[in-house]
Amino acid sequence: MTKRQNQEERSRQTQARVTQATIECILEKGIRATSTVDVARLAGVSRGALVHHYPSKTLLMQAALEDLLSREVESVREMAVKVKAGELNFDNLLKALHEHFKGDLYMVTLEYLTNARTDPDIMKVLVPLAANFNDSLEQIWEQLVASAKHTSHQNRVALNATLCMMRGMGAQSIWRDDPELYRDMLLFWKETLLELGFSASDAKRGQPV
């Protein structure tokens, strides 16, 4: 490995530590209370090194959210592959999505959402990344439920209705811990989707949906 490659690898490792530390700080303190000093300390880097990669807090927030959403897209893509291979049924796919939307990573995205309402810098960060995130999920969903029964618009509506429901359940889980209710809501939504003709088109037949 050349000196330049070593430097690039060290730079990538530093950036990964910094973005992960940013996510952890936001989860613990929220965006407003998170400082670059906090992040540098948690990441184990100097503030100068952090500022070298991310000259402003806005750029740091952007990098952290981009990293977070990219990981979420890959996770959903992996689940979709398992569904199409018959390793995960449609029922368990919805349960897995629910777990994503009530976990720590979703709580971080809520911080961005609530701050974006009154902070134009955070809004500028959020809008393009969230749009790209939704576009990626729509592509995955389109491939997963593709059938002659529905148009692309109908597929898009079904996905976004599902995501809105998952986000609402995730937000409600902050103040209401009611696993039985959430289980019944998931069952209701699964049955609704199936009645409308939405299911994983290539999942192995014979598996419960």
UniProtKB/TrEMBL annotation:
Coiled coil: none annotated. Residues 12-72 form the HTH tetR-type domain. Residues 35-54 bind DNA. The keyword Thylakoid does not apply. It holds the Pfam family TetR_N. GO terms for molecular function: DNA-binding transcription factor activity; transcription cis-regulatory region binding. The keyword Metal-binding does not apply. Keywords: DNA-binding. It comes from the Bacteria. This is HTH-type transcriptional regulator CymR. The lineage of its organism: Bacteria, Pseudomonadati, Pseudomonadota, Gammaproteobacteria, Oceanospirillales.
